[in-house]
Specification:
This protein is mainly α. It contains 15 helices and three strands. A three-stranded antiparallel beta sheet has the order 2-1-3, with no helix packed on it.
Length: about 375
């Protein structure tokens, strides 16, 4: 008789082997497809940041989004529940948004977590007037599924490469290697093509900068109080300003853009993207506007039915491929393609213009 531990190990190995046959760029597409299919029954199940989470963990190897499964399974759903709860408070939307931002940033600091998608989860209900408790339930199911996938060791098995490609490295789960810990630098294993990463080693191949592997632990493990204060100050200024001018369009304060800023001030995107800082800023701004624009056009022309869902799935896939081709590990750009589904009375031009203004303010 097969022992329970042996059986569990066998099942895990088979699941991992099956996942290895699926291109990583398709994993966010699969998650988005399931979510969009469920949205045909209830639109409040849509959580745009889900595809950003999956992209960050499965495609771009954001170690700090993946190593703490219990935070993923609890912090993000709790933030979503907070957001829905705030909609029942009789204050202006921008005030609810500011409270949600403040509470989540404080929670990230106290829990020493870098799970910034929680910002988006908390703010979406106030920005888009979502009052149904189906929304946090959907976020909970999605996050439990992601945490389960991480428990099986299905992520963290592909190394991001500066040149936009990827190479198979160690097969296994993420290692909690922190940037502030001492690690050997310059350790090389293997040849110029397809060198093998060693945990804790910043590997540089002799083949030139195009072959330099970027390990997933390159960024700081947590956002410092200074970084969080900067996010609160700049993000809060945008929220208050948008509220005082009458909340013209939710595009100006689309929550995934605040996630982008929170990660940027902590060094994630520049550390994972080659080229100068101005080029990185332009690429982040451009891909956010592009993602939101494509999503807005699809929703404006096709609505939110099955036809729009099919086209949006293709858009998600193309955005992931574009980001990989640009070697730009910027997951919020993918999430913005689904945000138009949450906007009531969508005016594509106004919405995209708001995204362009808000993104320029936050990434600048």
């Amino acid at each position: 008789m097969m022992r329970r531990g042996t059986y569990r190990s066998t099942v895990t190995t088979r699941v991992q082997a099956a996942m290895d046959r699926v291109p990583r760029s398709l994993v966010p597409v699969l998650v988005g497809s399931v979510m969009l299919a469920a949205a045909q029954a209830d639109p409040t199940v849509i959580f745009p940041e889900a595809v950003a989470l999956v992209s960050g963990i499965w495609v771009f190897n954001f170690e700090e989004w993946a190593t703490s499964k219990w935070r993923l399974a609890t912090l993000v759903p709790a933030a979503a529940a907070l957001g829905v709860g705030l909609t029942e408070v009789g204050v202006a939307p921008w005030q609810r948004e500011l409270v949600a931002l403040t509470v989540v940033l404080t929670g990230l600091f106290l829990l020493r977590s870098r799970l910034t998608p929680a910002i988006s989860a908390a703010m979406i209900p106030s920005v888009f007037d979502i009052t149904s408790w189906i929304y946090p339930l959907s976020v909970l199911v999605i996050c439990l599924a992601l945490a389960g996938g991480l428990q099986l060791g299905l992520a963290g098995r592909t190394w991001h490469r500066d040149g936009g490609g990827s190479t198979r490295g160690l097969a296994g789960r993420f290692r909690r290697v922190r940037a502030d810990r001492e690690a050997p630098v310059g350790l090389e294993v293997g040849g110029t093509n397809g060198a093998t990463e060693v945990p804790g080693a910043a590997t540089t191949n002799p083949g030139g900068p195009g072959n330099r592997l970027v390990p997933p632990w390159r960024t700081p493990p947590v956002l410092s109080a200074r970084h969080l204060a900067l996010v609160w100050l700049v993000g809060g200024t945008l929220l208050v300003g948008n509220g005082l001018v009458g909340h013209v369009t939710p595009g100006v304060v689309a929550p995934p853009m605040l996630v982008s800023m929170a990660e940027a001030v902590g060094g994630t995107w520049p550390a994972r993207s080659p080229g100068g800082s101005f080029r990185t800023l332009c690429l982040r701004w451009g891909t956010m506007v592009l993602g939101a624009g494509l999503g807005a056009v699809v929703v404006a022309e096709l609505g939110s039915g099955w036809a729009a869902s099919v086209v949006l799935v293709v858009v998600l896939w193309l955005l992931v491929l574009l980001l990989k081709g640009l070697a730009l590990a910027h997951a919020p750009s993918v999430a913005l393609a689904l945000v138009p589904l949450l906007v009531r009375g969508l005016a594509p031009g106004t919405f995209v213009a708001g995204i362009a203004v808000g993104a320029a303010f936050l990434v600048g």
